[in-house]
Amino acid sequence: MNRIRIDIVSDVVCPWCIIGYKRLEHALNNLSDSIEADIYWHPFELNPAMGEEGQNLREHLHEKYGTSEEASISARETLTQLGKEVGFKFNFYDGMRIYNTRKAHQLLMWAQSENKQFELEQALFKAYFSDAMDVSDSQVLLECAASVGLDSEVASNIINDESWAEAVATTEQQWLEAGINAVPAIIIDRKHLISGAQTTELLMSALQQISESAEQANGE
């Protein structure tokens, strides 16, 4: 059994990030007889300057990427279908908004030290994409934290502590300086970068090759 480290740089309002992760999850399940993975999540804010009120998602995509309403409808249909294929429910709707995720990342960074990062990450993806919740709202964040067994009082302190906000910003800057400017970004064993939501088959092939190369190197 080979053990590998996987770092995932992502944002909880990025639909391709959850699709990419679910495909990775399927790949690891298919290789569970030969590979075990330790997964670490890292912050990346798609919109660090987004105000507290957020913005209508369609308006945002049009302003940022020039996406037309027709293209937006098509993209939502595609994402919804891809979500079904990997077992994740997208619940897009006309008035959907996109939000600032700094506080969410503060909680996720703390949750790693509590061994609850994975559970919180999944809860936040579900809250935003499946349950139409505002993941910039402190009460929503505290409910997500409590749902995975994290202490609500400590969680409240974390999201209101400027030093945690600065820690998130510093970490994000380090990833930018390392060349990560889009997500999801999956880094295997600290040196093999896979960009974007690749297919389960491609991920399986990459994991096998990297695992076999590591095994050979250790054997030498």
State the name of the first-level CATH class.
Answer: Alpha Beta
Number of β-strand runs: 6
First CA to last CA: what distance? 17 Å
User: So, CATH architecture?
Assistant: 3-Layer(aba) Sandwich
Helix run count: 9
Number of domains: 1
Largest sheet: 4 strands, mixed
Structural class: alpha+beta
Helix content: 55-70%
Overall mean pLDDT stands at 96
Overall geometry comes to globular
Strand content: 5-15%
**CATH fourth-tier homologous superfamily:** Glutaredoxin
Task: Please name the CATH topology.
Answer: Glutaredoxin
Unreliable stretches covering 5 or more consecutive residues? none
Strand order of the largest sheet: 2-1-5-6
Pfam families: DSBA
Domain DSBA-like thioredoxin: 6-208
GO molecular function: oxidoreductase activity
Protein name: DSBA-like thioredoxin domain-containing protein
Describe this structure in words.
The structure is a single chain. The protein has 220 residues and is α+β, with helices and mostly antiparallel strands. The chain has one domain (2-219): Glutaredoxin, CATH 3.40.30. It has helices at 15-30, 57-65, 69-86, 102-113, 117-130, 138-147, 152-159, 162-177, 200-219; strands spanning 2-10, 35-43, 55-56, 97-98, 185-188, 192-195. A 4-stranded mixed sheet has the order 2-1-5-6. Strand 1 (2-10), helix 1 and strand 2 (35-43) form a beta-alpha-beta unit. The chain is globular. The two termini are 17 Å apart. Residues 6-208 form the DSBA-like thioredoxin domain. GO terms for molecular function: oxidoreductase activity. It comes from Vibrio brasiliensis LMG 20546. This is DSBA-like thioredoxin domain-containing protein.
